[in-house]
Model the fold of this input.
Amino acid sequence: MSDVTESASDPRPDGGPSRGFSALRERPYADVLVVGGGINGLATFRDLAMQGVDVALVERSDFVSGASAASSHMIHGGIRYLENGEFRLVHEAVTERNALLRVAPHYVRPLQTTIPIFSTFSGVLSAPLRFLRHGGGAHRERGAALIKIGLVIYDSFSRGGGRVPRHTFRGRKRSLQELPELNPDVKYTATYWDASLHDPERLALDVLRDGRAAGDGKARAANYTGAAGTRDGKVVLRDTVSGEEVLFAASVVVNASGPWTDLTNLALGDPTRYMGGTKGSHIVLDHPELLAATRGRELFFENADGRIVLIYPLKGRVLVGTTDLEHDMRDPIVCTEEEVDYFIDLVGQVLPGIAVDRSQIVYRFSGVRPLPGHDDLAPGFVSRDYRIESAPLVGGDATVLSLVGGKWTTFRASGEHLADRALELLARPRRRSTKGVPIGGGKGFPTTERARQQWISGHADGLPRARVATLLDRYGTVATEVIAAIVDDVDDTGLEHVPGYSSAELRYLAAAEDVVHLEDLLLRRTSIAFVGAATDDAVREIAHTVGPVLGWDAARIAAETERGIAGVHAADAAWGEASAASR
Done:
């Protein structure tokens, strides 16, 4: 049995606490308590577990259900951050991108990215002074010369460890030959390489899995468990399903709750004002014509308002985003109809011959970037770098470390920095580095076609080769456990309303991966909702498939079905309202 299986949620049909919460209640102390189960909290958890530290992690909702679940599905160096002078961040991000291509090749893959350019010199003189003007003044389009300078610098950061090709520039004629649906007013295109993140939630779950395995029983994690306050110098942990509470002691508390960092600190008695997050939304389109027009590459370009936006082929769909809007964390986090209009308009600007309308939207989502407070600075100019703030726990002896900022791309580095600060406070040495350590299903993942076919042949006993190939793509080498569960399940059958999945596969995920609500499975353990496959009939079928292994009776199955349908149809609104009210 895997470590993840051993740490899975109890069915708790009586509304009792999860196994994760029960483990914290049975031993209510650790050296370090991490609050926040997004990618940065999980990376810190994994790093500390690898150092042999007694570490616990709690997440108020489901793991990787907040800002980390609302990303643009990219691992990138942040070429546009060069305009703001953030060279340290870009260098670190490019280094981490190259490393993730090696240690997580099952989910992080090279991504060809093309920038359509409509002017030659615009912005060259103004860009170096943008940060001095705090984003003020009239917007000026980024021209070819400015983009060329940026790409040369960007390429230079990959020297000595580069994992992607260098950039290329094309004139109008060649650009339209390669991408004939582009706006004919295009003057140039610049093409460079970053990396795609095919399954952010599953990569985060791999990080969690690795942390638990490395901790050998001393690394505990519980979802649907929040830090509700302090009492007697300890943190009050509350199971958000059962309502049960426990006082938990730790020498160090790491606040990695992303855009909710100030609200978490407030719950702990310290009213900080570190954060100033901005909201970003996306839509997912089932649009074969638009998908074909991308020619398999991301289109990354400047909209008329100066915002950098993207059109991105992914999983047979097209991801379009993103916005950058000020947001109050007490308000629901939703993708508004105005944002949808914005996305439809931006597609028309760069691909004017392709019509897009709301009927082609199969999914939409929204999240708040965990940015630092920025007063009157325009959102697009706010630093994407991160820092760590330290303060004593009110009424106790513990130290609270708050992560301000943080990106998907740099999660290993930010987790390392937080772990180092915690180790320093504990007066403990670092045992090993997390650099170069494969993540989850990236360990032993076949990266050549020959190696891939050999892996499939070696795991095809009892399942068709095509099915094994699908599972390898879906889970990396962790697929060995999924395959074993499918083969051992005599009741395995294909699902009528969810092609490509079988009953045993979903039962395994539900039992082994901390699933508490049906939406955890639909939105985060699989891509069923993302690609628009979570129809009402599919949700009902899945609920009846996994309900028995989770101990759900008929009433609970009906309730989870209703909740799952609502969550899929309004994932951003449902999640945003619940999270804003509870943190």
User: Anything to note?
Assistant: DSSP finds 19 helices and 18 strands in the chain.
